[in-house]
Amino acid sequence: MRMSFGQEMRLAQKQVLAPRMIQSMEILQLPVMALEERIEQEIQNNETLEVDEAGSDGPAAEPVGAEAQPEPAVSTKTVDEMPLIVDQDHANQADFERSYDWSAEYPDSDDDRSRPSAAQIEQAGDRYLDVMANMEERPETLSDHLHAQLANEELPPAVQAAADRIIYNLDSNGYLPVPLAELVDPEGPAGQLEHLERALRVVQAMDPPGVAARDLKECLLLQIRDDMPNARKLRRLVADHLEDLAGNRMPLIERKAGFSLDEIEELREQLHTLRPKPGAVFTTPIVVAVKPDVYVEQQPDGSWKCRLEDIDLPNLRISPIYREMLLSPDTDPATREYIKRKVNSAQWLIDAIEQRRSTLLKTSQAIVDHQTRFLTEGPEALEPLKMQQIADRIGMHVTTVSRAVDDKWLQTPRGIQPLRRFFVGGTTSADGDEVAWDTVRIKLQEIVDGESKDRPLSDDDLVEELGKQGIKVARRTVTKYRKAMKIPSSRQRRDWKLARANEADANEADARGLAVPPVEIDIAANGHGSLSGLNGLGD
């Protein structure tokens, strides 16, 4: 191999994303609430970017159903302001043709600037205290609740420390997911395991009942009190037949435990009053604030038109003060170079916001034009749609469409919907028409709701029923959707009391000589099922 230093000329093609393009893609991907924060941050970091107060008092947003205006409610550029691009080599006199009175904005005398009085300062402090007083209090956590009870216990220091360790290792559902042996400190004193076992009994006796359990069975057993009706039978049902109960294998429990179906149903209703996740009551659900980026309204001629909801976005402009500084011969070169960079950055942001408006509006309108039946008929009328179809329609790349709809929300007459909701796959019906998967799910739920509970439909039967409605799907697809929709299997959906009653009626009819076909009852033998059959206890 020959190695040497030298120069050579080579011709090659290379794709490079300019910073301006990268910023444009970032702005396009932001939802409206995040865009508001981004604009506020840019205003604070870039002194050449300011809000045009004269143009910020735009028209208010029109109510849904009103006639849409041809122009957007708010524009990020003023009417008389042309795009400003500062050349790095020249002063660009045409870009700064409008002069600005510096003294009007910043008077030389400090007397014109009023300073806040003591009363104003005190009033501002009172408002701050009111805001602090009205802030939402931090909710009590499971750890706080248990430690408050532990403080009232008179325990030896070693057991107290062991109880603290157990409480800190509980998960959000109140379970202890690790064995006690793993909580032992290898470098600690002897007898830690005995202290942990005693501490575990103390914690398990605390409120909420069932806390610090190692599994669902122990959690339910901890909640069964001696004064509860049928406490002995409840403990036996949970300890020996919990998995059979979750799998809805009632005849098997009846044969093994000696309980009647009526007793098993009564015991199961009692189990539904227990909490399978005792710590979940202390978990504050995360509510994500959603603000529509686009509104769709029906026009008098029956068509649907999209409009952007960005009235909270300020009108941005390049500060006339810094325009004047660029024109001034007294500005030193270093300062002028700094202002040029800032002005370019501000102009890029203004252009990116305007580009976002245009792309988002065209993308949303194309989606609405394709999914018009959804707006008039509901989710069952949703049609299959791919992003490539929208990209071809508006003449943009599919990745641009993906960024435009990412985390964006559309206000429709049927509620606020994410724009990605309208991109769904589908299958072909018997008539050759495409059917969206959402329609298949809705039909599947309707079939399950209308089935006979003593003889629920199997997955093969569901495929057959969907075929009768002109929807051809595979059995594995039905099984996948059934599980995703949290619909139990046919065995778990069976009502054994109703099936037993129908069997008795059929036997009586046969005894009388009536031609009534017998009802087949599928009694499962052994096997372990999912805990989801407990209708909530396994969740």
Stretches with pLDDT under 50, minimum 5 residues = 56-114, 515-533
Shape: extended
- Total number of helical segments? 22
The proportion of strand residues reads 5-15%
Any overview of this molecule?
The chain has helices at 19-29, 32-45, 53-56, 102-105, 118-133, 142-150, 157-168, 192-204, 216-223, 231-246, 250-257, 261-271, 320-327, 333-370, 372-377, 387-394, 398-405, 437-449, 459-468, 475-484, 490-493, 496-511; strands at 49-51, 294-298, 304-308, 316-318, 409-412, 415-418, 426-428, 434-436. It has 539 residues and is mostly helical. The strands form three sheets. Strands 3-2-5-6 form a four-stranded mixed β-sheet, covered by helices on one side. A two-stranded antiparallel sheet has the order 1-4. A two-stranded antiparallel sheet has the order 7-8. Strand 5 (409-412) and strand 6 form a beta hairpin. It is extended.
Layout of strands and helices, then pairs:
Elements: H1 19-29, H2 32-45, E1 49-51, H3 53-56, H4 102-105, H5 118-133, H6 142-150, H7 157-168, H8 192-204, H9 216-223, H10 231-246, H11 250-257, H12 261-271, E2 294-298, E3 304-308, E4 316-318, H13 320-327, H14 333-370, H15 372-377, H16 387-394, H17 398-405, E5 409-412, E6 415-418, E7 426-428, E8 434-436, H18 437-449, H19 459-468, H20 475-484, H21 490-493, H22 496-511
Parallel strand pairs: 2-5
Antiparallel strand pairs: 1-4, 2-3, 5-6, 7-8
Helix pairs in contact: 1-14, 6-7, 7-8, 9-10, 10-11, 10-12, 14-16, 14-17, 16-17, 19-20
